Amino acid sequence: MDFKEELEKRVAYAEKVIYSYLPKEEGYQKKVIEAMNYSVKAGGKRLRPILMWETYQLFGGTVRETIEPFMAAIEMIHTYSLVHDDLPAMDNDEYRRGKKTTHVVYGEAMGILAGDGLLNFAFETACRSFSHNTDGDTTVEALQVLTRKPGIYGMLGGQVIDVESVNQEITMEKLEIIHKLKTSALIEASMMIGAILAGASEEEIKEIEFAARQIGLAFQIQDDILDVTSTMEVLGKPIHSDEKNNKTTYVTLIGLSKAKEQVADYTKQAMDIIKKSGRKNEFLERLIIELISRKK
Amino acid sequence: MDFKEELEKRVAYAEKVIYSYLPKEEGYQKKVIEAMNYSVKAGGKRLRPILMWETYQLFGGTVRETIEPFMAAIEMIHTYSLVHDDLPAMDNDEYRRGKKTTHVVYGEAMGILAGDGLLNFAFETACRSFSHNTDGDTTVEALQVLTRKPGIYGMLGGQVIDVESVNQEITMEKLEIIHKLKTSALIEASMMIGAILAGASEEEIKEIEFAARQIGLAFQIQDDILDVTSTMEVLGKPIHSDEKNNKTTYVTLIGLSKAKEQVADYTKQAMDIIKKSGRKNEFLERLIIELISRKK
């Protein structure tokens, strides 16, 4: 398998799906829709919709019209969180992925409204799955996950704890909770929804939730490791930024070698679930390895 | 009927329902939950959940557990819109209903996150209706309305057009669109969801949507009229504020006497639908009259 080529195909497919569900830039609301679409089209790995789709495949899902509204929805939710994170009152970031952030281009009021619009439109979009799914119960279950995981007991909760922990001492327990919520919650939602809509059993959905959580955590620890071990040339951003910002990370808490061990442990736990007998998705396996052992 | 007493009962019931669905102020996310609950508990007429409940009654609905999550959800959505409207980058209001606004009490970042949290939690809460409704199809339909009406083609769209129209000439057509979206959309959602969950027919739901729209418009025009005809003593806020802010209103566009005619017309259209043969809800009829002919 030429992984890079296969990945590009997936990204192209995910973007085709996402773009097809974006609102048309017309009417009196044109400007906020432009701001919403600008944010979504500004790039990104499209990791969450791809993980959703591949998990759907892993469990034998076949009805594109059922899963696609959710693929678009999860990317809208991810994007809304970035747009609001970048606001002056939050991280005050002017650039993301080399492009001006939404509030810089469209103004702060429109940045707030575009984020609100994306979050709301995500649920509106996901509801379109009901027209195509003959088994409405799985859509209900998928929708429950889609509403729960980004919220105060998921991603948003992690964001809040993170904002509040600035300049405070952070324990290992708290650091894990922040990452479980901030990073893992949307990955859990993505993979769980893929499994649910493909008709996976309750036990299988729980396993996938756990695998997704470990993937998110391993991804995050790898981030901390690269900040210490990589070079600015490879990473494309300044290294040692955590140290400079006096930020608590896995590396500062447990040291580099134990952090590496944990990445390996979490990855193995996730892979054991993905590769469990009866399941086979070579691309998904490879994607997870690439994500976690990445050099940048 | 002692209307005031009956209204107080409804407000107490609506608040009991709303509060019962609010998240508990505990755990690492405690602060954002406090900010969310502060905003919801800061008062208000609870008009939307009451209209939802009364429309549910109008069509013979009986299962409280089905409608109540939606009553809480619509109030959370209404509250999120106020919290974000009050932000410094938007209207920059420090007080609402005599209390400090959320971002003044909890900081701007928390104001943004609390609004996001409420919008997200509204959909999470509404999904709880699925566990109690034996007819899942009506919950799906109600959820579709709940996701559509507050969004870019509803309330949020109106907000955007309004923000963009500052210091611009506004036509009658545009003014109606702003009010239909900003004011009527959530009233439409409230009454439609009441009708849908009570098992009203497609035609009845359409009628209720129209009635709700007219109620929202009449309410808004009455607001414009009072700004010209009332006194500060009665209204409890400065009069002639529209004129001072050079704001286009129904009164500036069509004059006081035509504006009054329109309130009467819209009210009659709404009442004809509410009182249509086979339907009876004396309190709802009275509530609408009171809303529209109010003196403050």
From TrEMBL, chains A, B:
Q: Which Pfam families match?
A: polyprenyl_synt
For this protein, the Enzyme Commission number is 2.5.1.10
Q: Does the keyword Transferase apply?
A: yes
Entry-linked InterPro entries: Isoprenoid_synthase_dom_sf (IPR008949), Polyprenyl_synt (IPR000092), Polyprenyl_synt_CS (IPR033749), Prenyl_diphosphate_synthase (IPR053378)
Q: Which UniProt keywords apply?
A: Isoprene biosynthesis, Magnesium, Metal-binding, Transferase
GO-annotated molecular function:
(2E,6E)-farnesyl diphosphate synthase activity; metal ion binding
One GO CC annotation: cytoplasm
Required cofactors, per record?
Mg(2+)
Cross-referenced SUPFAM superfamilies = Terpenoid synthases (SSF48576)
Q: Which family does it belong to?
A: Belongs to the FPP/GGPP synthase family.
What name appears for this protein in its UniProt entry? Farnesyl diphosphate synthase
